[in-house]
């Protein structure tokens, strides 16, 4: 079944796939790259949401670095919506594929909230896909409390499928890949990421949500700053972005800044 699912995911153009048994939410694996305190509350476990669940399948799609570099912009907003929509449709198709094989399965939406303003007072969705990806061995947490992957750093979106099928889990072989450079801290417009304390640090979700709500009203949400300045990810080599000085006011990179500013001037109120 796992081979069939991986073949299906390849056919759907899904580059990141991970499998985690639901008991990983209950019994914390010793080999996890980061210590999360507090642990995920029981009401957010997959078996609490769908009692039939035995395995969580996590799929991820990348978000293109050169587009995120224009953020906040209408360009990144459209990319964000497109990737979310594709994740939902692909997860729905995988769940139906499993149902046809005789294993009861359901997909989960990428964003489990009605509007960004909901998160200002209630800063949680009913299930965390980043924690599911973490428990499926797809990455480690960064200082910005976002999951980092070797392939794309934090520039990847995830969603999940709950299935009654018992599928061989993936090993948690990822180590802490955060460089602890604090680029996310120093560039966060909302000041939502603390520089010191526990790792990963508790991000001020309310401040982040308020910033996103303001950008939504300007038609250029989400923020994306901590995502674009993260140095982790092989995608940086692909797009020629290994020199992090590109995000400073450096004359060597003026052509990039002019391009980003051009995009930001149009299509939104920003």
UniProtKB/TrEMBL annotation:
Residues 169-198 form the 4Fe-4S ferredoxin-type domain. GO terms for molecular function: oxidoreductase activity. InterPro entries: 4Fe4S_Fe-S-bd, 4Fe4S_Fe_S_CS. This is (Fe-S)-binding protein.
